[in-house]
Amino acid sequence: MNYKKIIPYKLRRALSMATIAGATLMPASCSKVEKEEPTRDVVIEFDETNLNEQLNKEKLQELANDKSIKNIYLTPIKHWDGWADNGIIALRKGLLQPTMEISPKMRGQGDFDFKLGAASKVPTDSLWFVKNGWTINKKYQNQK
To answer: What is the DSSP track for 30-60?
Structure first.
């Protein structure tokens, strides 16, 4: 089918000009998209010495307020095998739980190698650790 016979010349020309005019206006009407800061993850390592200093709430709050930070991983290092069930309860309720409540950016990462059998005496606390991203005595779990 020949469209030249169906659509009159003046209408074809008007449509072409409207298309060109619309195309030239398009870039001017789009607003400039601002670049967002890249998100990054931060790892805070801590051990059983100076916990309050290593997990300083003011410093963690500053990190949580930083819009360029996506996640803050709290990672235990060294050995925790001196911690029995009462210590596990105190660590959770006295320090880690309030720290995790600072921001939804807070996450647990890594392994607590508590005294063998101690974590099983406080299952609610053990489940809390696992729910928040940590593992407990991982090095002993796959041994036969």
So the answer is: SPPPPPPPPPEEEEEEE-SSSHHHHT-HHHH
Q: Count of CB atoms within 10 A of residue 136's CB? A: 20
Residue 47 CA to its chain's centroid (Å): 22
- Cα separation, 14 vs 8, in Å, equals 10
Residues 6+ apart with CB under 8 A from 144: none
> Distance between CA 60 and CA 53 in Å, rounded?
11
- Supply the mean pLDDT for the chain: 84
Residue whose C-alpha is closest to residue 113's, from 67, 76, 74: 76
Closest among 133, 127, 126, 70 to 107, alpha carbons compared: 133
Kindly report, residue by residue over 57-72, the tens digit of the pLDDT.
999 999 999 999 999 9
Please report which confidence band the pLDDT of residue 33 belongs to, taking 50, 70 and 90 as the band edges. Answer: low
What letter represents residue 92's amino acid? R
Residue 137 amino acid letter = N
